[in-house]
């Protein structure tokens, strides 16, 4: 399971009791771009090992915005990134997740969407998102990205909200900004978006490929596995290009720096938001480059809304996906690290404040269900 570090309300002991042997974590207190020192890495390893587990995967070693925009001190940040990788490998941690999403990481409009069983889920509602973009953020030129029907719907959606609901929407939409404990003013966000005005998808890909060509040879030499996280959701947002959305994107980024070290964090919940992504097929075709796995389900509708569903109940055919993963691991004779991604806020956790999607009990439910599925399938396949 993922652990956000000593400030995480979910403790390492909770994670151990969930039946985990490995932990996914990151040094969130180190500002993006700065080197992760051996001393800091060792401190974190010691915390995890004191609870009888291993730090098996880094999620994330974030990529500085200068690298994504290929501007400013990008070369220096790449060198610092390599130094962090070197230090991690030196300490024995060799699987590293990262993403190349400009400005924002994930995006949802509601982090407390009530499910029929009264647990709470994360939700992306397209009209609310468009209302945020057009009327709350007031991004210049945003209207050009939507159809007149979508704009009318968004206007109505906005009118249906109280001031409080509008505030919540604004806050939720910006939660995926790195360092989102801070309050982001409209001006700060618009200025960050503006920096991408001249960077389209083709150019951003060029910058990603350059970054990969710089880091992958060293990662390979160190026996590391780099795992890029797909964009969540997998399409352009707020005028920003997003370039890790489809199987073609995956193929291109793997071809840009061919190496066993160049790989993917196979996040089912992110990829499945696009019905044209064939998840079991991606495992079959790119399995050699799947270095880390996030198992999560979503339920989407024709309007472009989706909510995070129970792990075994949604548009991701978890049976087919896990079956392919087991076949892959058996074929290669390896065990790929995986974690249940997100979970509903439920039971006792309804009274607690946790990172959106990362309350303990809902994740434990997902983990237990997936573990059972994996156990049954492994027994059948071996
Ligand atoms: C959200 C996560 C992402 C992920 C990063 C990886 O819950 O899946 O924030 O950690 O995109 O770099």
General shape: globular
CATH superfamily caption = Divalent-metal-dependent TIM barrel enzymes
Lateral strand order in the biggest sheet: 1-2-3-6-7-8-11
Rg over CA atoms, rounded to whole Å, is: 20 Å
Structural class: alpha/beta
CATH uppermost class: Alpha Beta
Tell me about the largest β-sheet.
7 strands, parallel
Distance between the termini: 26 Å
Query: Counting H and I runs of at least 4 residues, what is the number of helices?
Result: 14
What would CATH call the architecture?
Alpha-Beta Barrel
Order of helices and strands: HEHEHHEEEHHHHHEHEHHEEEHEH
Set down the secondary structure blueprint.
Layout lengths: L11 H6 L4 E4 L12 H13 L3 E6 L5 H5 L4 H17 L4 E4 L11 E5 L5 E5 L1 H11 L11 H12 L3 H11 L12 H9 L6 H21 L3 E4 L18 H10 L5 E6 H4 L7 H8 L3 E6 L1 E4 L5 E4 L8 H15 L5 E3 L19 H22 L1
Parallel strand pairs: 1-2, 2-3, 3-6, 6-7, 7-8, 8-11
Antiparallel strand pairs: 4-5, 5-10, 9-10
Bound molecules: D-mannose.
């Amino acid at each position: 399971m993922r652990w956000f570090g000593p400030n995480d309300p979910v403790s390492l002991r909770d994670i151990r009791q969930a039946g985990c042997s490995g932990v996914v974590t990151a040094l969130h207190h180190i500002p993006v771009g700065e080197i992760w020192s051996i001393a800091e890495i060792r401190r974190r390893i010691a915390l995890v090992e004191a609870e009888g587990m291993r730090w098996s995967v880094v999620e994330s070693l974030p990529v500085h915005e200068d690298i994504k925009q290929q501007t400013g001190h990008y070369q220096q940040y790449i060198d610092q990134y390599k130094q962090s990788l070197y230090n991690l490998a030196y300490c024995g941690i060799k699987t590293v997740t990262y993403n190349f999403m400009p400005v924002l990481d994930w995006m949802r409009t509601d982090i407390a969407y009530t499910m029929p069983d009264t647990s709470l889920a994360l939700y992306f509602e397209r009209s609310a998102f468009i209302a945020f973009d057009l009327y709350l953020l007031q991004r210049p030129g945003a209207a050009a990205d939507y159809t007149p029907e979508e704009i009318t719907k968004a206007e109505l959606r906005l009118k249906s909200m109280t001031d409080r609901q509008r505030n919540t929407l604004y806050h939720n939409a910006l939660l995926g900004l790195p360092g989102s404990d801070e309050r982001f003013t409209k001006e700060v966000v618009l200025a960050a978006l503006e920096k991408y005005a001249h960077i389209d998808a083709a150019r951003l890909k060029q910058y990603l490929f350059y970054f990969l060509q710089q880091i992958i040879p060293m990662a390979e030499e160190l026996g590391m596995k780099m795992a890029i996280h797909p964009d969540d959701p997998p399409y352009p947002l707020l005028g920003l290009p997003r370039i890790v959305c489809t199987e073609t994107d995956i193929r291109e980024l793997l071809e840009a720096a061919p190496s066993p070290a160049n790989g993917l964090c196979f996040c089912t919940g992110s990829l499945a938001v696009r019905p044209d992504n064939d998840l079991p097929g991606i495992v079959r075709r790119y399995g050699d480059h799947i270095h880390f796995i996030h198992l999560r389900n979503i339920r989407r509708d024709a309007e472009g809304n989706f909510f995070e569903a129970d792990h075994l109940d949604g548009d991701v055919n978890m049976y087919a996906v896990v079956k392919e993963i087991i076949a892959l691991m058996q074929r290669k004779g390896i065990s790929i690290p995986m974690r249940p991604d997100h979970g509903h806020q439920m039971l006792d956790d309804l009274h607690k404040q946790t990172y959106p999607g990362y309350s303990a009990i809902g994740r434990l439910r997902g983990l237990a269900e997936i573990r059972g599925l994996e156990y049954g399938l492994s027994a059948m396949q071996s």
